[in-house]
Amino acid sequence: MAVGKEIKTQIASIGSTRKITSAMEMVAASKMRKAQDRMQSSRPYARSIRGVIQHLAKSNPEYKHLYLQERETKRVGFIVVTTDRGLCGGLNVNAFKAAVSSMKEFHDQNVEIDVCALGSKAVAFFKSYGGNVVAAKTQMGDQPEVGDLIGAVKVMLDSYEEGKLDKLFIVSNEFVNTMTQKPNVEQVLPLKAEDDDERLNHHWDYIYEPDAKELLNSLLVRYIESLVYQAVVENNACEQAARMLAMKNATDNAGNLIDELQMVYNKARQAAITQEISEIVSGAAAV
Amino acid sequence: MAMTVHCDIVSAEEEVFSGLIEFVSVTGSLGDLGVYPGHAPLLSELKPGPVELRKQGGEQDIFYISGGFLEVQPHKITVLADSALHAGDLDEAAAMEAQKHAEQAMADQTSEFEYSKAASQLAEATAQLRTLQQIRKKLSR
Questions:
Q1: Low-confidence spans in chain B with pLDDT less than 50
Q2: Which residue among A199, A206, A209 sits closest to B30, beta carbon to beta carbon?
Q3: Measured by CB atoms within 10 angstroms of the end CB, which terminus of chain A is less buried, N or C?
Q4: Do residues B98 and B129 touch, judged by C-beta distance below 8 A?
Q5: GO CC annotations (chain A) (predicted)?
Q6: Is B41 in contact with A41 (Cβ distance < 8 A)?
Q7: What is the CATH number of the domain that holds B28?
């Protein structure tokens, strides 16, 4: 019986797509757990060093490090953290939207923009969108290491130190929970004091050991490395969570499609049988 | 009751300690330094070595860190370690082995890079052994 041959093949092909998406969902779920662990284990350090830097930004140091000085803004840098692979819902698109809208603000003020792209998607996006990509790093894998990032970050820090860049931002996704990821644009340099701790509002400075310049140099570079690393690790957790969700939706949708097609197929088959019977019956009556 | 101050010790991998302490001593880049509650604001680089705590109530605890930074605020002390271990988890045999290995590597130096690497390994191994000695001293007292 040749009824609904096309529908049958379509059902089969959607079925195999569903198998793939559900496998990807499970892979993403198991990777997400590990990525989340990694994100959480490096969080205390990132939080503490941020606290120290916040205090530092509120102090009144004798030696003002370059990273603490506000300058007139002529050119800004963006570090955009994205994934290497697609199929993770709107994760990258949301990050790009956030990046582009804040870039536009600078563009309107005739401020030029340099981009440091972390992740293949960012590289591809800025290639087609047209941004001045000065540094890029892709294929960091599921276990990114600080060493992988230093090169790309150093390019940005060097041009900041040379005075080519006057501000540095980082764009990445914040992991709120498995269902929600929030794109975030954060100013890295110059360091800003956000913490409103009244105990620090008087005029004070640190005692530096060995000396302020050396110490601040290594501390601030460490801080920025930690910040970028944390963003990458967090983005990785976001990627897996977003992919898990996207693949879950895809699997559910494939299931619905199959159900609908199955219904159409069954109806067609039933109609064919009914028709055949009525043909036989009417044929018999004619004899 | 003795004055206390909040102290956090974090390494790149995890939070090692967080709580109230009466006293802490660390290995600064210019020598050992001890901090009591109410200390003036201080930023210091840390060398590999022991971090000794006297927790609220007088209980002692020793950690080993492989370098990092120390921030002191009158109300808070933060130790940012590159990596940290509870001193009890240190392996004396491994540390001695590493020390010997590093000394050897320094003796037959082939390049600048390897020499500095060996030197930092030696410093770490020596600091680990120093931490262990400190614990032993504490126990015998």
A1: none
A2: A209
A3: C
A4: no
A5: plasma membrane; proton-transporting ATP synthase complex
A6: no
A7: 2.60.15.10
* Same domain membership, residue B39 and residue B95: no
Q: By three-state DSSP, how is residue B85 classified?
A: strand
User: In this structure, are B38 and B56 located in the same domain?
Assistant: yes
- Choose among B12, B42, B75: nearest Cβ to A207: B42
Are B24 and B79 within one domain? Answer: yes
Please answer yes or no on whether A204 and B74 come within 8 Å at the CB atom.
no
User: Of B33, B43, B47, B75, which to mutate for an interface test with A (greatest number of A Cβ within 10 Å)?
Assistant: B43
- Structure ipTM: 0.79
For residues B125 and B103, give the distance between their C-alpha atoms in angstroms, rounded to a whole number: 10
Cβ of A209 within 8 Å of Cβ of B8? The answer is: no
Instruction: Return the SS3 of A62.
Output: coil
Same-domain check for residues B57 and B94: no
Residue B77 sits in the same domain as residue B98:
no
β-pairing verdict for A112-118 and A75-81? parallel
Q: Are residues B94 and B83 in the same domain?
A: no
Range of the domain at B94: 90-139
Determine the pLDDT at residue B113.
63
Q: Which residues of chain A have pLDDT under 50?
A: none
> In this structure, are B76 and B133 located in the same domain?
no
pLDDT at B69: 92
Closest CA to A32 of A172, A171, A174, A234: A234
Q: How many CB atoms lie within 10 A of CB A173?
A: 27
Task: Mark yes or no for CB contact B40/A207 under 8 Å.
Answer: yes
**Single-letter code of the amino acid located at A268:** A
The pLDDT of residue A270 is: 94
Of A199, A210, A219, which is closest to B69 when you measure between CB atoms?
Answer: A219
Do A44 and B30 count as a contact with CB atoms less than 8 A apart? no
* A2: three-class secondary structure by DSSP: coil
Closest Cα in chain B, distance from residue A52 (Å): 7
Q: What share of chain B is helix, strand, coil (3-state, %, to 5)?
A: 35, 45, 20
Residue A56's pLDDT is what? 83
Nearest Cα neighbor of B62 from B51, B46, B48, B49 is B51
Dig out the tokens for A253 from the structure: 């949708």
Q: In Å, what is the CA distance from A241 to each residue of A93, A238, A249, B41, B73?
A: 15, 5, 12, 42, 39
Question: Which of B11, B15, B80 faces A52 most closely, judged by CB atoms?
Answer: B80
pLDDT of A5: 87
- Give yes or no: residues B26 and B83 share one domain: yes
The per-residue pLDDT for A261 is 94
At residue B109, the pLDDT reads 65
